[in-house]
């Protein structure tokens, strides 16, 4: 809507504030959506929605792998200690 009705307003911000009141959201929220749409269309620098989701997924995967690695290290240390305790003296 902002792109469609932008030419009717003196600035993009004026279009955003006018349309936001009609949509029932804040102008800042609509501005954020417009900026993200511009990134998705390649008109503005930054991460696209797909890239943001991919980054979020990768960060989650890294967290999960670190957690699994910590668990494996703890288990390995536990079993190594248990093996040492069972050795004949």
Instruction: Give the uncertain stretches in residue-range form.
Output: none
Strand proportion: under 5%
Largest sheet: none
* Shape descriptor: rod-shaped
Which percent bin holds the helix content? over 70%
Q: For the record, give the distance between the C-alpha atoms at the N and C termini, rounded to a whole number.
A: 80 Å
- Helix and strand run: HHHH
Q: By helix and strand content, what is the structural category?
A: mainly alpha
| Number of distinct helices | 4
Mean pLDDT across every amino acid position = 93
Number of beta strands: 0
Radius of gyration: 26 Å
Description of the structure:
The protein is mainly α and 89 residues long. It has helices at 2-5, 12-23, 27-40, 49-86. It is built from 4 helices and no strands. The longest helix is centred in the last third of the chain and has 38 residues, at 49-86. The relative contact order is 0.06. The model has no long low-confidence stretch (mean pLDDT 93).
């Amino acid at each position: 809507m902002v792109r469609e009705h932008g030419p009717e307003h003196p600035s993009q911000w004026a279009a955003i504030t006018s349309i936001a009141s009609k949509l029932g959201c804040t102008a800042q929220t609509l501005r954020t959506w417009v900026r993200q749409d511009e990134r998705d269309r390649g008109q503005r620098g930054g991460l696209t929605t797909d890239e943001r989701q991919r980054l979020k997924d990768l960060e989650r995967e890294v967290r999960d792998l670190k957690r699994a690695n910590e668990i494996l290290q703890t288990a390995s240390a536990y079993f190594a200690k248990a093996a040492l305790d069972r050795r004949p003296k």
